[in-house]
Amino acid sequence: MANPLIPKAAAALGPALARHGLDLLASLFSGAKKQGRDELAELIEEKTGIDVNDIADDKLDETDWGRLRELQLTEQERLLALVPNRNARRSHERELGSEDLAVRRFRHNYAVLLTVLTFGFIFKAAFFTDYDADGPALRIVDTVLGFLLGVSLAAIIQYFFGSSQGSASKQVQISSILKDAAARPSQGGQDDVPH
Questions:
Q1: Taking the complete model, does pTM exceed 0.70, yes or no?
Q2: Are residues 154 and 104 in the same domain?
Q3: Cα–Cα distance measured from residue 27 to residue 78, given in angstroms and rounded to the nearest whole number
Q4: What is the chain's mean pLDDT, rounded?
């Protein structure tokens, strides 16, 4: 069993790993909850024999960093399973596979409801309300419009037309590159180790 992760070390792990080109591990330690960090620490100690507290204290030599790079390549699928967004995607896939029509369409119906309410508010605020030029009601409408357009509507548009698809295709590319790198025969030189 891995040594318990010292809270001070947990904060230092992400930056220490990132400095050595271990971005996947760094992002996992930076974004993981305590249970995920402990699970990750156990995996690292099990596969490499390295105590994560030593990583945070910068006590590793180049051989240890090489073993961590190898772990990041060989255990990529297991590491990606710890990424929080991936669990959200799995949840969404389960929702889409549900036999209950309300469950399958909830996200879409919710997005339509927010969009209709946003445009309804904009239409009412623009055409059916009189405001004083310096009145407080105008400032409130400005704030609500800014929130609706800048947060709610932008998030809906990004979810359905932007970031989810781009993120998924980026992940496919990263997986392909790492699999190709892992499949290449090693020459034993430093040039083979991704930084």
A1: no
A2: yes
A3: 14
A4: 78
